[in-house]
Specification:
With about 250 residues, the chain is α/β, with parallel strands linked by helices. The protein has one domain: Undecaprenyl pyrophosphate synthetase, CATH 3.40.1180.10. It is about 40% helix and about 15% strand. The chain has seven helices and six strands. The protein has helices at about 35-40, 45-65, 85-110, 125-135, 150-170, 180-185, 235-245, and strands at about 25-30, 70-75, 110-115, 145-150, 200, 220. α3 packs parallel to α4. The longest helix is centred in the middle third of the chain and has 25 residues, at about 85-110.
């Protein structure tokens, strides 16, 4: 595989130059909204709203340095176990986000995809998702993936079921199954770069929490202590600069 040319950080995020290669795909777990709210003497909903505003504010900046794909872990399948009023508030915010995001995505030519299980989310939100995906499906170069009601374990499980069904129906042989076929069944098949080069989790917790379990096998993992509502341009630039200083081996000697 030919080496990719190195890029340097530019755009609106800062003037710091670095000759390391930028990631093609950055995945972000937006953690810390609840702790941010508690720290600032606010209700949990106040933290959720602040996190929502941060996602809206950062959407364009994610791509201004040359990143192709950005995935945001917005709501995990396990989050349904939280208090009902908190979950309902999240669903309302996602509905608002989709309405704000669509004109912004169309203006900036950002393709929008939503992955996860859609059966449990409100019908109005499902309709908004379909509208956003349909309106932006032809855009290239900037791809925003929202993981909503997403589970990495379920992603792998459903992919295995699909492959098993294809074997059962004689469409493929067991011997045909390899990593490429598996990746073509995962929800991230919507992306030109399905596996994140850099996975950021804000809030200081150092775990993946069921996000992109297959896809992050060789991702660089970055765990800043800043809570998501405080994760701005400077913090994003710092994460990318950290990534550029990494020497990625993929299990091989360099």
């Amino acid at each position: 595989m030919p080496k990719e040319k190195g890029n340097k950080l530019n755009g609106t995020l800062g003037e710091k130059e670095n000759q390391g290669t930028l990631p093609k795909h950055v995945a972000i777990t937006m953690d810390g909204n609840r702790r941010w709210a508690k720290k600032n003497g606010l209700a949990i909903t106040g933290g959720q709203e602040a996190g929502f505003r941060r996602a809206v504010e950062m959407t364009v900046d994610f791509f201004n340095v040359g990143i192709h794909t950005v995935s945001l872990f917005a709501f995990s399948s396990e989050n349904w176990g939280r208090p009902k009023d908190e979950v309902n508030y999240w669903m309302d915010l996602f509905g608002v986000f989709s309405k704000i995001m669509l004109p912004q995505a169309e203006r900036e030519k950002i393709k929008v995809s939503v992955i996860g299980t859609r059966e449990n989310i409100p019908a109005s939100l499902r309709d908004a998702i379909i509208k956003a995906e349909e309106a932006t499906k032809s855009y290239e170069g900037k791809h925003l993936i929202l993981a909503l009601d997403y589970s990495g374990k379920n992603d792998i499980l459903e992919a295995c079921k699909s492959l098993a069904e294809k074997v059962k129906n004689g469409l493929i042989q067991v011997e045909d199954i390899d990593e490429k076929l598996m990746e073509n069944e995962l929800m991230t098949k919507c992306s030109e770069f399905p596996n994140p080069d850099l996975l950021i989790r804000t809030g200081g917790e150092q775990r993946i929490s069921n996000f992109f379990l297959w896809q992050s096998a060789y991702s660089e993992l970055y765990f800043p202590t800043v809570q998501w509502p405080d994760f701005g341009k400077a913090e994003y630039l710092e994460a990318l600069t950290w990534y550029q200083q990494r020497q990625r081996r993929f299990g091989r000697r360099v």
